[in-house]
Amino acid sequence: MVTEAVKVLQAVTQRNGHTIHITERLIGGCSIDRYGTALTDEALEVCRSADAVLLGAVGGPKWDDPNASVRPEQGLLRLRKELGVYANLRPVAVHPDLVGASPLKPEKLAGVDLIVVRELTGGLYFGQPKGRDMVDGQRRAVDSMVYTEEEIRRVVDKAFQLALGRRKKVTSVDKANVLESSRLWRQVAVEVSKNYPEVVLEHMLVDTASMRLITNPAGFDILVTENMFGDILTDEASVLAGSMGMLPSASLGEGRVGLYEPIHGSAPDIAGKGIANPIGTILSVALMLRYSFHLEKEAAAIESAVSQALSKGCRTVDLGGTLSTTEITAEILTGLGRFLG
After folding, report:
1. Under a CB-based contact definition with an 8 Å cutoff, are residues 142 and 130 in contact?
2. For the whole model, what pTM was predicted?
3. Which domains, from first to last, does the chain contain?
4. Tens of pLDDT along 127-144?
């Protein structure tokens, strides 16, 4: 799917006279097989020196051993942490011609256009202490939910900045009735909101938010939440768009490097069949052009070409169609010229 997305990237940039230099490196399972680690120091340095990183899925059953000391996800987590990309933007919009692909009733999908802003470098995935030990003859596992004030403030501030250009509403999702980290999260969110008087802030417990995403998704504009909650909620939100294969993401920080990837995993059940949906990866390229290269016209052209292909009835298997990965990319490439002028 990355190969197909790069075809779109090169077509757009070449058409408008831009030059993109692409360097490939391994991450995840294939890096473990070749180097014994999920991300080499050399690959990390290449990413640090780039303007943007386009990432494919990293895992698979071959490396899915809970007792393994090296796992594919370690490469992804390290890359996010080392690049300092703390805000993961996951837009969710429903194409009118894909309403039937979602299990929700059509009236629930009307007007759905939201962005989940997920904190990406803190929380349970990174908190210390972490590990396993023995206590009174019992195996014990420990994960720590740790957040500092600054980690919360910077991602919530990013959410408010996005809201200014949209419907001016931020929903901060936490579990403040139980978790101390969520109580701090809520407190800092209130403090940040004072800098944005034109934006409405609401607080919502994560269990309520998971229900509302299904019962009233159009009521959300910007959701901002911590790492694990965001991971779960965005996978849930993928059913609104009809398939997990449809959704892109952009991970941003204070530096110039952005990290772009679809929200889905490696789909080992269809690996090698050439039928996976590349649209989430292609739309991630659009986000890359928008946020890292500031090429709004080119980003919008990709999004319009994808929308046009879907309006024409182009569908991969996950959307109930028959087109292969390369065939739907070809349809998108055909439509690009119309929107580039």
Report:
1. yes
2. 0.90
3. 103-241 (3.40.718.10)
4. 999 999 999 999 999 999
